[in-house]
Here is the input.
Amino acid sequence: MVNRYRAQLNQWKQQGRLRTLPKPLAPGRMHEQAESPACILCSNDYLGIGSNPAFWKAFLEQEYTLLQTDSYGFAGGACSSRLLTGNDTVCEEIEAFLVHAFRMEAALVLNSGYHANIGILPALTTRKDLIVADKLVHASLIDGMRLSQATVLRYPHLDMQTLEHLLQRERHKYDQVFLVTESLFSMDGDIADLKALVALKHQYQCMLYVDEAHSFGVRGPGGLGCAQEQDVLHEVDLLLGTFGKAAASQGAFVMTRSEIRDYLVNTMRPLIFTTALPPWSLRWTRYVLGLIGSMSDERAHLAHSADMLREQLAQTGLETSGNSHIIPIFIRDAHKAILCSEQLRAQGFHVLPIRPPTVPEGTERLRISLTAAHKEAQINSFAQACRNIG
Ligand SMILES: Cc1ncc(COP(=O)(O)O)c(C=O)c1O
Here is the structure.
């Protein structure tokens, strides 16, 4: 009965596409639990919060003090969906915090970015609707589109002209139209022109859905993301942020209008039919959210590190793209990408190869994601290691 799976596994191995779980990282997640620790260059801990034990310690101390008081609630599991008994007060505090920070009408906390993206579009669309998405949006958005009953069209990555032609041709055939994009693309490190998308949204009367998973915490003056940075926060109809990356926690949120939030609460299956996030995790998220707004120095350091590394990689003649802390180095061959990753590991750098189906065939790459914890010396040594392997 397992022959089919064995054959497929063997084929993936031959193609250089077999995925295996890497070794667990050491506590603090700055290096592997190996004798020769490596500098991690593939974590989404963009502000360095998850790898800084001081934050965790301060959080535990604060919680321990609260624990001494009678008012401290049960902090284990949520034990049911938010619609049953799992709706923790901390979850509502986080939503109130986000509403205040974004100055948008409503926030809805969800269990993960994946849950959010597979749930929102199916909940809000019908057969009469159209979803138009950037060709390179994340797998979770693709799964959400697959689960929805709407017609789905894709436009070439960041190509606003083709998107406009598409809307000119198709808009009149549909009831509602949803424009879907990431703001900072997770595998390419480039950034959507949200102003152009907002203009098209108005011209063709669409809803704009922006996934800020990789920009929340990192971009914009208060770390709210690219919509804040591009000054279009209040033009985005559905703004998704995650807690699992720069916020070093778990979960996600969508900022939207109150009626849409109410509608999602009534229809969104990955909210209704799953156990809510555990209260202890929500408490950590609440603690971290209190830090992010004031971490401008970390954001500036991260941006500076990214500029520096991009420049050095360009001097080495390596092909990269984008203009953010996520830097792909295109290798364009799965086996070579694995080899480069192994050679970099031997020089003390942990960088993973990204291969199909995560990225299109022929665009195999190493994905470097910098964090605010990386020091200038580490970045220089990494650029040198890249030169060494050519
Ligand atoms: C653009 C984007 N959206 C959503 C997600 C899913 O977020 P989460 O890890 O919270 O499920 C990811 C995860 O990598 C992502 O890159």
